[in-house]
Amino acid sequence: MTRSNQCLTKIPRRRFLQAGALSLAAASTSQAEVFAEMKGAAAKAVGAGDPGPFLPDPKAIGTIEYINPNPPAFQAPDYPGEYYNAIVPATLDLAERARLAVHAMTSMTNPNLDYEMYFPVAHMAQPPAMYVSQSDLDTWGMFGEATALMRIMSGSRENLHVDKTWMEVMLKGQGSDGIIYSPTTGRDWTMYSEAMPEGGAAGSENPTKQYSLLSFGTAHWLPATCLLAQMDPQGPWAEAARKLAGGYVPLMINKGADRSYLFSPWMYPGRLVHKLAHNIMEESIYTAGTQSWIAMCLVMYDRALHDPPASQLAERIMNFNIFDRGVNESEGRFHESPEVGDGPAKGQYAHFLTHATNILASIYVYMQTGNKPLLDRAIKSYEYAKLKGDPLVGFFPEVCSDYKQVGSRPCETCATAAMVVAALMLAKLGYDRCWDEADRWIRNQLAENQLTQIDWLSDGHLDYSRSKTSPDFFDPKRYTTDRVAERTLGAFAGWAGPNDWVSQEDWEGGNTENIVTTIQNCCTADGSRALFAAWRDMLSYDQGVLKVNLLFNRASKWVDIDSYLPYMGRVELRVKEQVKLALRLPEWVNPGDARCEVGGTVRALTYEGRYAQLGRADRDETIVLSFPISERTERRRIEGSDYTFVLRGNDVVSVDPTGTYLPLYQRAHYRLGRPLYEKVTRFVVPQDLSWW
To answer: Distance of CA 255 to CAs 42, 214, 262, 291, 452, Å?
Structure first.
């Protein structure tokens, strides 16, 4: 097949990336140029004639007083690598999705507040709004880590000044004890108005100017600083990481010979560390479970900067969580928490992401310490988790329960992202079927949960009858309505449905909940982390052998991969360095039907498991692997409702019923069997990030 005879086919307007698809003859416009044009046009359309107030980004309420106002000098790291243009099949391209994510994470920020992220976004308000909250600062480190990962994938240099400010804020927030604190001055939303002991959050009645919620974003500054240290070895980043990792040590209470837990979920400078009479870690499954973020990030730090005591502390934390508290129980079940959920069944739910993060942390600890009981529990919990969502498309709910549920729950991107990363980690440990599970979830719910177009907000079809806001909703001290649609392009849904990007909790049943808020930005960070894990792990290289584990578009120093899935069963590999190639066939391909050609000559295939052994590949060769692809129909019941999915290979190409607000799976162009193409800027990065 040649590309020059393919015409640009009319494609649905419901997907920005599809709207950028080009035939070879028409591919004179780059993806970046199309991206810029779409942003500008959509921003104008959304801004024109919207009801409601225009609110600029809020300003600080007084002076923001950082604990370390004179941080060490640093240079913002560069992202060196090779850039070049290419015409590729217009299929799922993880690097291009990373480029969109960079745009979102650096744009959903407030330039008046040191580019503090906006955690919540309300697309269904009129007009769409973003607003500040206590979770902004608790999650900031996740943006720091995820944005660096997305730049490494895509080479995007958009808004680099935002990253530089974040780095300075992190250094200015690091106390002499190594912990990173958020100032409570200048931002009266830093702490909740009242203490929330069940969630581990302090209240504003605590007389402190500096505050740290010790898990979540604070922990994620560890891999963020490790990434910076790798790119800028002479900078202050390795020392900042060591101080933060060491800062957790004196905050721990030891329980027995091999278990430890935080004395408190939060900290302020000089706070006395002691065993509290009522320690929330021993009383709340949910709060104990949040320590898994710290354990996971401590292991990542050790793997990057080689500090074994960090992994030993992580092991003690996970021994406490798993074997003492039973966050994930002996048969894998997620232990419910009294403080999780709402409605008549409150207390009978488990917060899916918290338990999934305990799976991830357990696997990380095993990888570094060899703690096999933790791995065994992680595998059982992974299998349990699949039963609580939908393992065909990767829909995993915000909360789950073993009891009869009232109403339904949406998909939190964080949950799907954690399951994708867990599947990839287990696949690398030899659980081969997990490659197929990851592939399905990446192509479907994860990809669809990313906001890739915004014209749905301005085309007049939206029904706002369930999107009422109170008269005081648009508080100018907290909210902005400035270019919200354009600034959120590339973000991930906080509450998606199986067929719609816009959804919401339905605790009481009857589907009566108000739908206003659409994004919680932990999901944008976690969705991005899953994109990186998929992009990195789709290839594995060892001593001259390159394995292609997943069939997405990908540039690398060894080969460039053009994937035609799901238009047709075809993958092209353009060889750049001599390697021995093995390519894993997806679960739906019969190995006997696969055909390999090298330079137009058929090459016989042998197999090791599902890996087709393509043999030696020399520089400048093009290897083509082809196989039949067909459609099938799957009927699924998800959160109490029935859906019919049409899949082509592993990609859902249609769903019935169709969504209401921003329908998912508008992929009719994939069913034509004729590929579309797009021009992209490929980027090949030299860094080895196997430690992440």
So the answer is: 56, 19, 11, 15, 48
Which 8-state DSSP code applies to residue 684? E
At 541-559, the pLDDT tens digits run: 999 999 999 999 999 999 9
Using DSSP, how many helices (H) and how many strands (E) does the chain show? 18, 28
Interatomic CA distance for residues 189 and 250, integer angstroms: 28
Determine the residue type at 413: T
Phi, psi angle pair for 531, to nearest 5°:
-60, -45
DSSP H stretches of helix in 174-319: 216-231, 237-248, 280-283, 285-289, 291-305, 308-319
DSSP characters for 403-464?
SPPSSB-PBPHHHHHHHHHHHHHHHHTT-THHHHHHHHHIIIIIHHHB----GGGTSS----
For 244-275, the pLDDT digits (tens) are: 999 999 999 999 999 999 999 999 999 989 88
Q: Return the amino acid letter for 655.
A: V
Where on the phi/psi map is residue 174: left (φ > 0), alpha (ψ -120 to 50), or beta?
beta
Q: Is the peptide bond before 344 cis (omega within 30 degrees of 0)?
A: no
Residue owning tokens 């954690």: 418
Question: Hey, which residues does 572 pair with through a beta bridge?
Answer: 562, 624
Radius of gyration of the chain (CA): 24
The C-alpha atoms of residue 156 and residue 680 are separated, in whole angstroms, by 12
- Cβ-proximal residues to 309 (8 Å cutoff; 6+ apart), any chain: 249
